[in-house]
Structures
1.
Amino acid sequence: MTKEARELLSLFLKPPVKELGLTLADAVRIFRIKTVGLVLTRAKAKLDAAKLEINPVPAKVLIPMLEACSLEQEKDMIDRWANLLATAASANSIPPVFVQVLSSLSPAEARLLDSLKKLQKKLPGSGRMGTSTRDFRLSLQLEPQVFNREILSLLRLGLVELFFDAHFGLGGPSHYMTKVQENNFVGTSPFGDEFLAACTGPSKPSSEPTRR
């Protein structure tokens, strides 16, 4: 990288390199090492709290995960990476695609997905979980343009489903949409539910005896 390119890049780095008293290379290296260290430390703490042993994570999952998480700076996203790593290192393995999906999520999209999971309810006549897109948008106090963009991003990642109505068209398969309408319904997809569970981290093993 040329000197001119480095100076231009430093203008886009937050916090500014000059304020840190570092060179651009130093700043990038420190940010990456610090974030990876946080993810590893928090993942181990979560496994310890759940009284679970650390199982080796396949390199195909671990290396892309550490590379992707090293670029995060927001606390809630770092926590999600730590949870995902803890899940991968527990008895529950994760597919490599989960790393790709989390690295593609913005913090706002991740929070929206969490909110949808908490807000959705069983829709009448369908057995599926979801909520009105209008009610959901209003609960988040988001402008329609922002809401549409984030929902469609989650849709492209396969994390949510959009439907014409609560009954999914006379109880048949859900109708996937390419545009969010106020009278649509939205819910987390089965893939999204699995992804969210992995990003929550491993649970403590049950101490209760199995009932027969």
2.
Amino acid sequence: MKRRLPRRERALSDLEACVLGVVWRDGPCTAYAVRRELASSSTPRWSDSAGSIYPVLDRLEALGLVAATARRWGERGKKEFATTAAGAGRLRAWVPQVTAAEVCGPTYDPIRTRFCFLAVLPPSGRRAFLADAARSTKETLDRLRGHARRRMRPDDFEALSIHASICELEGRLRWLGRMRKVVTARRS
């Protein structure tokens, strides 16, 4: 009898893996609880919309990575999701994959993206953009620092990951300061 080779598993998207991770860490939990967690994340990359979370959970369930249990909840009921052994295994395989350029390269930064097109604004608009970006970044940084102080425990890796967001925003502020000097010196 021929030995079957294992079927190649499709790679999980980062959103799928993140949702799987939230269910693993917080489960059993509802899709609403996953949405709440993503909405409060210091990584605004994740959409917390029902239109993205529910289909992701459906895909994870179809792949056998989470199992859903129906619970009575008012008139409608709800589903609670828990990670399966296969799901925990896929999560363990996903976490250490950090060698790809898209994982270790620069993060998406909408301020940096807008900066590429700063020439469309008059000099006063450019200066205002940089001042607004710095002010908003400082406000977000202050909020994250307060959040990190309240949650800091050596075994709370999510809270510790907030420090990456803090470092990123501190770097953005330094960059914005340098760009303000360059843009102000340019005069055109």
3.
Amino acid sequence: MPDNKIIYPELSFKIIGIAFKVFNSLQYGHQEKYYQKAFEIELNNQKIKYEKEKEISLNYDDQKIGKYYLDFLIEEKIIIELKVLSSYRYKNIRQVLEYLKETNKKLAILIYFTQDGIRYRRIVNPKYNSL
């Protein structure tokens, strides 16, 4: 029977709080890169360790065939992807699932800056869901 315990609850709460703080300050209508910059400023203000635009390799048969860039990797644990969209898109979820697979991380949070406010989705690596 799978354990339904929330992964990294305190850190996740802080991250979502940062997204709301950024949105409340900037509101809707900016390019994604400006939300990313504001998000980074707030990570620094809260002294949360992160890597921005972290490169990860896509491998096939132990050979690098491509690369991805994560918006943020928080404390070597949580992948963050920021989007400016009106609703969840399957392609974004699929993208984040691929990041989880390639990095072997447990959790990603997909954060949308929408006209109606912040929307977010916690996405657990399916490998860890089945344990």
